[in-house]
Specification:
alpha+beta; 7-stranded beta/alpha barrel; Beta-galactosidase, Chain A, domain 5; 21 helices; 25 strands; 31% helix
Length: 711
């Protein structure tokens, strides 16, 4: 019997990605690959296109979709389903899992007039209880890395066919994707890839080899268009496949499924592809894992040992990055509201629109980070909050409330501690009293924007590569990447490796030395005299028809002296201003102090002339990545003309203000890069307490929407 060969691609661009990125990926990757597929009618292909990308293609490149339809009608392309907006299923409540899969299956079957039998699992993240859900959603099969099967105890010779797996009495068929082919295509020579297939055909009876991976590596990733098309790698590979069709049978996954028998029953553990399990580990464990792998690779037993070595579980990205957990918890909050309304409001167009925006916010990319930008890309995080706030706006229309301010207290972020949400028709503010009394989310409903969707600067295992290369090491000798080659998008990145000791948010209270300087504050090299930044505050919530007040109080320590700090947050019904009042008591008169309150402003882009600072007498004081050190001002603000937002702080007493960018160093398929995450604004005062040891100040944060988007 011949070897059966399945060639599959998974094409995806995340919700919120720049239109120019969609265009570049289409021009350099998707369109040339379709040209190639059309040239080889004897080689059918299995194709998955995420819903976020397919919607863009329908709107911007309808001719591409028509070409796909023609190939589907001819039986030359099999279309795979999946979650509509490429969610990782372990992130979703079961109700949303089923909804995402069913809605995308219906969409694809209408669009392509075909039956959807299989689905692509985002990032191949697998958990055993997916079986019952996929079967319930009408899915017959899926495909996972052969790494998953090795983790279940299978040997290599068992990985050339499909298996049955089961949960709650429901059955699902699963294909192993060949890891050797993932690394041969297109990174080694076409002859080596054909040689591997020939070796498999010679060793095993009636084998099926599945080569399926990201379509972007065929032209959209850096330098791959030249490699695959200009230099002709893919054309040579397909020519060789066609030249060897006397012993290779080309088929889709469904064709191979119908023509072969099951390899048996398997129960797969929670898993993803090998690299993802490494990225899910904390940095120090990643380093240890890498050291262990490099040592064991030299051991002759390594081929047998490697299946017993794995990294972490995907869900731990929610533990590794607080910012991921915040998005996840906000998503669950909206999902629960929609699910509660659905039985009585399924036909309501606002509820239906809210559910679609919820699905868009569940796109997986900003919920993790590895060799791709993911969480570190502000525009992807902003897209999550954009669609969550938009969904909430739809829900407010479906079930309108009186135009009043309200407060809720519950465990919003799943840390077993109560948080407080205060909101009106313009703003939603989330407070964490037990974490420094900070504001960790500030939603501006008119422009559907979370002003605190920032990212703290933290250690990453791959920062070692940047340091070692800066010291003269060869990049290739110190790193192993999914995308071959190591690139630096800016010079001197090792100098930008600054790590925060607390989560960067708003309303964080600092007690500093009087001589504290902007340069030390910006580089996180300052001495914190108090224990208020991360300490717990007691909370009292007061609510009336006209406003809501949250009073947070902490008796903490400054240089060994007990000090009482009280801060009050006021939100009025229908207003777009937050009012803050600080009272400090029992201050030591003999100890000079500088008191600073930290605010973050995220999603306001740096390096653009229409995004700028302003303060007393200076309507345009510089772009938002510039350092600002001003004194004795009564107001300080940031304007983003593109977003349509002005955020201005006003002070009851003249204030000094430090402002500086929060910039992270991360890796993506394009290389190592510095990314602007947010702008820190810190009003500060040299404290001169009264004889009673009392000092106070008032602030207002006005959030003026100058071009509100429609909900």
């Amino acid at each position: 019997m011949p070897l059966r060969f399945v060639f599959g691609v998974h094409n995806h661009q995340p919700v919120g990605n720049f239109d120019s990125v969609f265009e570049q990926a289409y021009r350099d990757g998707y369109a040339p690959l379709l040209d190639l597929i059309e040239h080889y009618p004897e080689i059918p292909i299995t194709v998955h296109t995420s819903g976020c990308l397919l919607e863009w293609l329908e709107a911007r490149r309808p001719e591409y979709v028509e070409r796909l339809k023609a190939l589907v009608r001819q039986g030359r392309i099999e279309i795979l389903g999946g979650g509509f907006y490429e969610p990782i299923l372990s992130m979703l409540p079961r109700w949303d899992r089923l909804g995402q899969i069913r809605s995308y299956t219906d969409y694809l079957q209408r669009l392509f007039d075909c039956r959807i039998r299989g689905m692509w699992l985002a990032e191949r993240v697998w958990e055993p209880d997916f079986v019952a859900d996929l079967a319930e959603a009408g899915i017959e099969y899926t495909l996972l890395d052969d790494f998953h099967f090795r983790q279940a105890g299978l040997d290599e010779e068992q990985l050339f066919g499909w298996f049955l797996t089961e949960d709650e009495g429901r059955l699902l068929k699963v294909w192993p994707i060949s890891e050797p082919m993932r690394y041969l295509v297109p990174w080694k020579s076409p002859e080596e890839a054909i040689g591997y297939l020939r070796e498999v055909a010679g060793r095993f009876a009636d084998p099926v080899v599945v080569c399926a991976d990201d379509g972007e590596k065929f032209g959209a990733w850096p330098e791959t268009h030249k490699h695959c098309y200009t230099d002709g790698w893919l054309w040579r590979f397909f020519d060789l496949l066609r030249a060897n069709r006397d012993w290779i049978r080309f088929c889709t996954l469904s064709q191979a499924l119908d023509e072969t028998r099951s390899q048996g029953l398997v129960y797969l553990p929670d898993c993803s592809y090998r690299e993802m399990t490494e990225w899910a580990l904390p940095p120090h464990r990643q380093r240890l894992y890498t050291e262990l792998v490099r040592a064991l690779e030299q051991d002759p037993r390594w081929p047998r040992l490697r299946s017993f070595l794995r990294g972490g579980m995907w869900r731990n990205f929610r533990a590794k990055y607080p910012e991921v957990r915040e998005m996840y918890c906000r998503m669950l909050e909206i999902s629960r509201r929609i699910q509660a309304l659905w039985p009585v409001a399924e036909g309501n167009p606002d509820v239906a629109s809210a559910r679609q925006d919820l699905y868009r916010a569940q796109c997986n990319c900003p919920f993790w980070h590895g060799a791709f930008g993911g969480l570190y890309l502000p525009h992807l995080r902003n897209a999550v909050y954009h669609h969550l706030i938009k969904a909430e706006n739809h829900l407010e229309k479906a079930a309108p409330k009186a135009n009043a301010a309200e407060a809720r207290t519950e465990d919003f972020d799943l840390d077993a501690q109560p948080e407080v949400q205060i909101s009106n028709s313009h703003l939603a503010v989330y407070l964490a009293p037990h974490r420094g009394g900070m504001i960790y989310e500030l939603d501006i409903r008119g422009v559907r924007h979370n002003l605190l969707a920032t990212l703290s600067r933290r250690d990453e295992a791959y920062h070692d590569t940047i340091r070692q290369v800066a010291q003269g090491a060869s990049a290739e000798s110190v790193v192993s990447k999914v995308v071959e080659g190591v690139r630096f998008k800016q010079a001197n990145l090792e100098k930008a490796l600054i790590y925060d000791t607390y989560q960067r948010k708003a309303l964080l209270d600092h007690f500093l030395l009087p001589q504290a300087k902007l340069a030390d504050i910006a580089s996180n090299r300052f001495q914190e005299l108090g224990d208020f930044v991360t300490g717990p505050y007691e909370t009292n919530v007061r609510q009336s028809a006209d406003e809501v007040q949250v009073v947070m109080t902490r008796r903490g320590s400054i240089g060994g002296r007990s000090v009482l700090l009280s801060k009050t947050i006021v939100l009025k019904a229908g207003g777009n201003t937050l009012v803050f009042r600080y009272v400090l008591e029992d201050l030591p008169r003999e100890m000079p102090l500088r008191f600073a309150i930290e605010f973050q402003f995220a999603g306001l882009a740096a390096g653009q002339d229409d995004r700028y600072f302003h303060f007393d007498g200076r309507p345009r004081a510089g772009q938002l990545q510039t350092l600002q050190d001003v004194s004795a001002v009564r107001s300080f603000g940031l304007t983003d003309e593109w977003l349509g937002l002005d955020a201005t702080l006003r002070f009851s007493r003249p204030s000094g203000v430090w402002a500086f960018p929060i910039q992270t160093v991360s890796q993506s398929e394009g290389g190592f890069e510095m990314v602007h995450q947010s702008t820190t604004v810190m009003p500060h005062w040299l404290i001169e307490p009264k004889d009673s040891g009392r000092w106070e100040v008032g602030l207002e944060l006005s959030l003026h929407v100058v071009r509100a988007s429609s909900a």
